[in-house]
Structure formats: structure tokens, C-alpha cells
Amino acid sequence: MSSVRFAGAALGFVVLVAIGGGCSTAGTIAGAGPTVGPQSSWDEIRGTPGLVVNAPMIPFGARAVAVTDVCRSGDKLRATAADGTKLETPGSGHRSSYTIEVGRIVGDGETSKFRALFVKPFDVPPCA
């Protein structure tokens, strides 16, 4: 699970995990295999080159973790930082499901921006 230090308020709410590729006009990503879209699993989406998952960040004190890397244990949210540190925060005030935009970065280095291709629901899973 990855963690991100707060560098500012804007970084605290959104993580862009770039992973490279193309798109079709139907809100799906065309590639060598099956088309990726809202019907795809999160593993398929994360494994598709060119996609960016615009997931909200959950604060764990001075650190934050993408909601897609968090689990729920009773009234607590848990995650593991990249350095192996176990993180825990109260679950109150956090939803059990989120709608996450999936898209790609378009433009060049100076004028690039996120372009959503589709949205997909994400339920915070129970901890194993």
C-alpha cells in the first residue's frame, strides 16, 4: 500500500496514479485485450497502461493513503505505508463507498490535465 505525505491541501484529496495508454469514444480503454471500462475489475483497471485512478486520499495523521489502499476493521480504517508502517484512523467521518473517476492525462508537460473517461464505484473492503 502506498502513502503520500501531505504537501498541501490539494494533494490531500486526490492521488493520480499514472499507468500510460489510449481510449475509445465510449468511455472505455481499447488495448490488446478486452476493453476496460466501468464493468472491469479494479485489478484490470490498475493494470491497463495509460489509465489514471483519481482516488480520494484518506488522512492517517501526517500521512495519507489512497482510499483504494484502505480497509475497514470495525470502526477503524487501516492501511500499510510504503515503508511498512501500519496506519490506523477512526472510520467515523469516512464513507464506506466512493465513486472514483478513471481517466488519463492529456496534453503536454505544461498544459496537461486529467480527463475522466468513466467513473466506477469503490467499496472500502473489510480488513483480512
Order of helices and strands: EEHEEEEEEEE
Estimate what percentage of residues fall within beta strands: 35-45%
Please state the structural category.
Answer: mainly beta
Radius of gyration: 15 Å
Report the uncertain regions. 1-26
> Can you count the helices?
1
What is the total tally of β strands?
10
Alpha-carbon distance between the two ends: 14 Å
Q: Major β-sheet, in short? A: 4 strands, antiparallel
Mean pLDDT: 79
Integer tally of domains? 1
Strand order of the largest sheet: 2-3-9-10
State the helical fraction. under 10%
- Overall morphology: globular
What does the model show?
There is one protein chain. The chain has one helix and ten strands. With 128 residues, the chain is mainly beta. The chain has one domain. A four-stranded antiparallel β-sheet has the order 2-3-9-10, with no helix packed on it. It has a three-stranded antiparallel β-sheet with strand order 1-5-4, with no helix packed on it. A three-stranded antiparallel β-sheet has the order 6-7-8, with no helix packed on it. The longest helix has 5 residues, at 42-46.
